[in-house]
User: What shape does this take?
Amino acid sequence: MITGKNLVAGNWEHSESSAVFQTVNPKTKTALGINHQEATTIQIETAVQAAASSFEVFAESSFEDRAIFLKTIQEELQQQKSEILSSYQEESALPEGRAEGEFQRTISQIQSFIELMDNGSFSEVKIHTQGPDLRKMNFPLGPIVVFGASNFPLAFSTAGGDTISAFAAGCPVIVKAHPFHAATSELVAQAIAKAVAKCRLPLGIFSHLGGQSHDVGGQLVSHPLIKGVGFTGSYSGGKALYDLAQKREEPIPVFAEMGSINPVFILENKLKSDYSLAESLAQSITLGTGQFCTNPGLIVICDPSGAHDLAVEISKHTASMNIPPMVHDSIQNKYDKQIVDFKSSGLLKSMHHSSTCSAVIGSVGAQDFLNNKNLSEEVFGPFTLVVNCNSADQMLAVASALEGQLTVSILGDPSDKGIAKVLLSKLRTKAGRILFEGVPTGVAVTDAMQHGGPFPASSDSRFTSVGTDAIYRWLRPVAYQDCPDNLLPDALKNKNPLGLQRNVNGKITGSEI
Amino acid sequence: MITGKNLVAGNWEHSESSAVFQTVNPKTKTALGINHQEATTIQIETAVQAAASSFEVFAESSFEDRAIFLKTIQEELQQQKSEILSSYQEESALPEGRAEGEFQRTISQIQSFIELMDNGSFSEVKIHTQGPDLRKMNFPLGPIVVFGASNFPLAFSTAGGDTISAFAAGCPVIVKAHPFHAATSELVAQAIAKAVAKCRLPLGIFSHLGGQSHDVGGQLVSHPLIKGVGFTGSYSGGKALYDLAQKREEPIPVFAEMGSINPVFILENKLKSDYSLAESLAQSITLGTGQFCTNPGLIVICDPSGAHDLAVEISKHTASMNIPPMVHDSIQNKYDKQIVDFKSSGLLKSMHHSSTCSAVIGSVGAQDFLNNKNLSEEVFGPFTLVVNCNSADQMLAVASALEGQLTVSILGDPSDKGIAKVLLSKLRTKAGRILFEGVPTGVAVTDAMQHGGPFPASSDSRFTSVGTDAIYRWLRPVAYQDCPDNLLPDALKNKNPLGLQRNVNGKITGSEI
Assistant: This one.
């Protein structure tokens, strides 16, 4: 049942004095009837204090206990699955298949962290017994604030990668629910709260606070007892939180994944020979109504002959598509306005849309693109801009002018190898992930994934927000020098009771010392 | 030969218009005669542009080439050793043994990075061939600015851990020389410049700029093409650079190691039974005239009987010591002023000094310490404050009140185990390194070292500035998805031509794919 209340360290609190707001079905534009309460200053303070005072205990929980906790979260989510999915579809307008897919992604994402707990590699044990006996491993940072993302109500929200990786690290989490899917978020929070109670963990390790204004998030990020922040969303939102965190007496890390135009470079011979390009790009551009942070917003083609009108070819596919509205009116309005601005700029060669589909495909000459920096701004939604280059050099110039990106793609034929290599050298300094086949919209949850790129794609390119390496955002190393064995954490003990693979005097080994 | 010029991407430039300054022998207070030129805005711009344009080439240098470069730096330093050591002693007043020791530390520090290049573990290869083929490894961040530290003219300055770890990562470096040892810094820069030329590396990968004002450093940190900063020094200096870097349009990481009071907790039975404590603490407090970031500035003892006057015992040892002046008048004056302030605060139970030695040992009751936050401020120099606790609980209260530290020490007898465990839980959240024997002033250069702790000890507790893991400050991961083998970097190729230990589908292996 959806209550509209805030979860404060285990208690679902009703507050008479709170401002309230409702979520809206983006298809029908009707409010959904539940009054969601904005968290009060006292609730925020109580949640943070409880998170801080539960930290020492949770930090010392065994990896096994954390795995059981994550498993219990999975089970509780499964219990509430049908209610969660129906709320998800009402609040986001995203179709059933996507809801189901995102639910499964959330569950399997949790599974990957359960397996990580079993293998323990994230503790990164380094032991050096020559000279002073030094033993280093990673420990949790402290209480973390996680912001739900508007575009992924499950996989990047309440029980998404940020929350789960922080729990896996041993950090208490306070979720600031995204106001566009407050009901879905509450249902997921109920599942987590049940898991906390079932596992008899300190109740302070999880709170779930709502709010439509920026006040709740701002107070949380500014609180001296908070030690880190996870965020996925717009540049303006992420940068504002980042700046707030840097103005604190003690600055803290903010991992803001702020989006990207994910340029796709199509080399000359590939463009000539691959007739399926337009269709696969059309699919990628419109996936989730273009609301993916890896949406291909820029397609740079090398077409010296000028024979290819890729924008037209893509728009032939998008024109007849039937895609749902964006997850919220305010996002849709921003998208519509940016499209109007692009059109009225007079810089584009052409712009293609249809009366039945919100996807828009623009086309511009490379020189015009290079002369107008605002053409490389992200248009969040089902839009892409095709940049037509008349030479490989012009393509390199476009590559050089790019800001930091989550992904770049280089689609080439084997005969394009020469230019691919030069382009790759350049693009490697611009992105977190480089694709050579397919489209950037799939983000696999593995330990080899990098989701995060040079600023402004994310606030810290050294970390990923997808895949098990996301845990490193919430850890810091501590070295024990000449510590008696009985005072060492299990991971560092001579007998290696956890059976970890450890780096001992420079060699990786599972043996005792 | 010392010229006073700035090194701008391979050229030792003389500038008529530059402001000049001289370094001073702290013992004789005489200026050393060489006019050191402050770098001009044009020189700064040229150095940064050259660093940025050499980045792509240097980033693609093989690990082997970087090892040869580091080895050549070692050789060139050895060539200039006698000149460097004599300049070092003139500019710092530190004795010959220390000069020799710090030179050796610098050489062996470089050696550890040469070995790291050979083993390649820092590239942290993760390959996942199921689903999309994803291959991730670390790449250099970009041009780095390194600030020389006043208290370590060699090991934490021009060819110190920051510079060498950045070179090892594949990043160009611009050193902002510390004005207190500008001549020593120039000699070391000459050695590095010769190594760059001998190895035929792009000259832009190293510049060495001087300046007495904050302008040179400020301009460097604010330059959009700079991607990271390394600093060891005071809180005020480090925090100012940090803030400057966060105010940029693109914020960049600043690794500021800002010092610490390195509390030493001596448990009840240890205090009663170990008669050598006072002497070893006296040695640690006065080492390098107290100018170590790991100097024990706070000693917390559990003495319910009130029978021990540890401050008196330590001062018996320090009183007769003959220690040199601090490395610069301005540091000495700040130290002297802080001592006067402590004395006039009227809060201390006692303060011990001698007419022949600048070491000062203070003593205060735990409650007074807890009531006066300013007593826990760092006094940089040969000073320590003994905090007398009448119970284990009072000791825990002192532990809880501490800010972030580089190190904490828990010195206990086996019979102190109970309280040691409780104290450890608390202190683990406060420090980067925890010692159980000896004194904190030794910082071993191994992969298990952690030199860096929670704010304000350092600006980013997730990284270390000593030991081979210091390289991770200058790296970020990039994932290649479905990349043809011939376009992959060697570390990621199927055949594993570098013979690295790689994580392939979750298993560590040296095999091909």
User: Anything to note?
Assistant: Chain B touches chain A through 73 residues (CB under 8 Å).
